[in-house]
Amino acid sequence: MKAQFEVVPTANSSFLVFRRAEPSFAFNWHYHPEFELTLIEAGAGQRLVGDCIQDYEPGDLVLLGANLPHTWKSDNPSSGRLDGNRAVVVQFRAEHLGKGLLELGEMEPVRMLLERSSRGLWFEKARRNMEIADEIRGLLSLSPARRTLTLISILLSLAESKSDEALASGRHQPLCSPGEEKRINKICRLLDRNSSRKISYESVSKEMHMDISSLCRLFKRSTGRTMTEYVNEIRISHATRLLIDTDMSALEIAMAVGFSNYSNFCRQFKKVRFCSPRSLRQMFKDPANYRSRP
Q1: Which intervals hold domain HTH araC/xylS-type (predicted)?
Q2: Residue 37 DSSP label
């Protein structure tokens, strides 16, 4: 997927910390040379990192390496609230942590953490990581000097927590050519907007002024998945929310998210979630059987 290059302003600080608050997070596939630490405070939807797509929810914490394409795409706007989707975002470069600091022997855990983040890292919602999340929020109110020291402390705590999981596959390579960013963003928005109904790839190709073969090759080469696989993952994500948040039957949910065949819905659900729709709903009814994972 060709991602849009993003210039990250640093103002008077060596790195950037800000709170992103919007009615919804729109699909915006992009990359930048800074590392990025993102903590979701409110809202839910899908997180795309390289060739990985997963759900996110409040408490979601991710560290992204430099030039790794990514985006967060929220579900429906939260009751029209202007801040229905919120995240604290920290963007920094390795040199911002201090010249030569990462070369010190005692900083090896942080150095290794940043190296692993080239694939994107997701951190479990363990108690210690919840404390780290509070420290990340605290960055917003610190002076520049204390902010820098606290960021180093946060990275060291994450490295020592040993609770991270890689997101993008080892096969994924950051795509930094800017030529196709508008095209691929438009394709994904078309697929997202129409995921709950039968999608005609012929109509998508006409909208994009491309023949179907070229369209399919571009999408497969860029994302590591076909458009059908991408749409199914979006549908399964929506279905997961409905299974957790409503009393709709699995059949009703299958039809609502865009599957015309219930057997295919169950098959695709198990492929993505590694369990049946019924089993997932039961897991959430019995928290003892549920391990928090997007």
Answers
A1: 185-283
A2: E
Give the Å distances, CA to CA, from 109 to 23, 143, 265: 37, 26, 43
Q: What stretch of H or E contains 56? A: strand 52-56
Q: Which domains does the chain have, with CATH numbers?
A: 4-166 (2.60.120.280), 193-289 (1.10.10.60)
Query: Pseudo-torsion of CA 271, 272, 273, 278, nearest 10°?
Result: -60
Confirm if 102 and 94 have CB atoms less than 8 A apart: yes
With beta carbons less than 8 A apart as the criterion, state whether 70 and 112 touch.
Answer: no
pLDDT (tens digit, 9 = 90+) per residue, 54-83? 889 999 999 999 888 888 988 765 555 667
Residue 166: alpha-carbon gap to chain centroid: 12
Task: Quick: pLDDT tens for 191-218.
Answer: 888 888 888 888 999 999 999 999 898 8
d(CA 245, CA 240): 9
